[in-house]
Design goal:
CATH superfamily: 23S rRNA-intervening sequence
Number of domains: 1
CATH topology: de novo design (two linked rop proteins)
Order of helices and strands: HHHH
Largest sheet: none
Strand content: under 5%
Number of helices: 4
CATH class: Mainly Alpha
CATH architecture: Up-down Bundle
Number of strands: 0
Distance between the termini: 20 Å
Structural class: mainly alpha
Radius of gyration: 15 Å
Shape: elongated
Length: 121
């Protein structure tokens, strides 16, 4: 068991992704500040936030719900990146690298949920 959510490898990876997205979105046009920039940053940061919230919950069903919320934020982030790529803000190569990280997070979240469900049987 981890002493803190900050010790969890999945939280560390999600937080690193949020930092990377923050830096990346600094290069977006000012006209996107209240649109894509804000949405992409919030979606990416929500992944680690929901993982932390799941850690703080006592019941497996509560934990599972927050891991599902984190998973939802993963695909939301993927969708925003796809849009950014299609409108020419980000390169295909950059989006592919980020998508790989996001897909790994998605799969790892699924593994956690499966473990929690099996321990509840």
């Amino acid at each position: 068991m981890y002493k803190s959510f900050k010790d969890m490898p999945i939280w560390k990876e999600a937080m690193q992704l949020a930092e990377d997205i923050f830096k990346l979105t600094e290069k977006l046009p000012k006209k996107e500040d209240y649109g894509l920039t804000s949405q992409l940053r919030r979606a990416a940061l929500s992944i680690s936030a929901n993982i932390a919230e799941a850690y703080g919950r006592n019941h497996s069903s509560d934990k599972i719900n927050f891991y599902y919320f984190a998973r939802g934020s993963v695909v939301e982030t993927q969708s925003h990146l796809e849009y950014a790529k299609r409108v020419g803000y980000f390169t295909e190569n950059l989006c592919a690298k980020l998508d790989k990280v996001l897909s790994r997070l998605y799969n790892d979240l699924n593994k956690i949920v499966i473990c929690l469900r099996e321990s509840n049987i």
